[in-house]
Amino acid sequence: MDLSVIIPVYNEEGNIYKLVDRLQKVVNGLDLSCEYIFINDGSRDRSIFLIQEIAARDHSVKYIDLSRNFGHQIAVSAGLDFAKGDAIVIIDADLQDPPELIGEMYSKLKSGYQVVYAKRKSREGESYFKKLTARLFYKIMSKITSISIPLDTGDFRIIDKKVVEVLKQMPEQQKFLRGQISWIGFKQTYIQYDRQGRNAGNTGYTYDKMIRLALDGITSFSNFPLKFATVSGFLVSGITFIMMIYALWSRFISMTYEPGWTSLILTVLFIGGIQLIGIGIIGEYISRISANVRNRPLYIINKTNIE
User: Fold this and answer.
1) Which among 139, 152, 163, 248 is most buried, taking Cβ atoms within 10 Å?
2) Given 1.20.1300.10, 3.40.50.150, 3.30.430.20, 3.90.550.10, which CATH number is that of 3-206+299-304?
3) d(C-alpha 12, C-alpha 27), whole Å
């Protein structure tokens, strides 16, 4: 098998037929043996039925129907586990990432690269706030981690099979694939493109899911939040010590002490807030350790036509 195309699906019934048509035109033009692996991530619409209908006519179309919604990154991981191609493309089903780039990406891969990712020059149909928060996230990640995730990139990329084999050895529950692929290394490059708006339907990446993905990325590749909690503790202790010296000076030497609860309550609230932040940060790491120690399966398959 020359090529595997991994397509996570969540409520994409309006895009599936058009996506398959465009993918097949691209791959047929490359004259490659190819499989298309759709991962239905707990869709509530007719997505899985449309995929099964296509698979019944075309044996190159495979599907994995997960038992519930496990999340985009886990769905992609499920597809990678079953991919047989020497090269693997990851692409979303919303047609924001044009399948027509696969030919150019494949050519670059064959020229000696192991990873070729798509970098967005523009992002149509996305709010200013979403673009701003994405840019801030990648800048923060580059500052507090040892990995370099290129700005304005997603999961749309083509990777060599050897990269997939390494990813399979990284079974953590909180997946952040673009970070993992950057961490793995190998020879990587990119192509640029203008990202279109969604062809149909609504995005499954809500702000809540984006925040969780950001937390997974930061906690998976950095211990900076723990260092921040430690430094904050020392800083607050230092400020508190200075305030104690000032209070004693005012009471016993300068005799300018005036009783009152304002300074006291502000100090208590300030210290309490820092403590809660520290406990919360530690709790995030502990919860991730707990999830990995339980060693539950990443996903559960309801049905599939992959043998």
Assistant:
1) 163
2) 3.90.550.10
3) 21
